[in-house]
Amino acid sequence: MSTAKRPTKEITLLGRSYMIACDSGEETKLERAARYLDRAMHGIHAQSSVLGSERIAIMAALNITHELLETLDERRDDEAELTRLSQRLESALEKASHRR
Hints:
Layout: E1 8-13, E2 16-21, H1 27-47, H2 53-99
Antiparallel strand pairs: 1-2
Helix pairs in contact: 1-2
């Protein structure tokens, strides 16, 4: 079993710095995710400055999870629509080939 320590990357959320373990080559993705989360947290903080950082983080996580699930649902709906269209096209092509 490897005891090698994963490299860390510093990110800032709501003005506080955190050191996060990050695989090599994944730094850009971590930075992007941290910027997204930081913007979400700042948006919640701006609405109610009396909330603590932990509560802001939880609310931001819930909002982002909701966005993700909505996007996944839309993707599934789009894929289902593409499947229906593909089946209609195949059916139409089959009918057209029988008419020849």
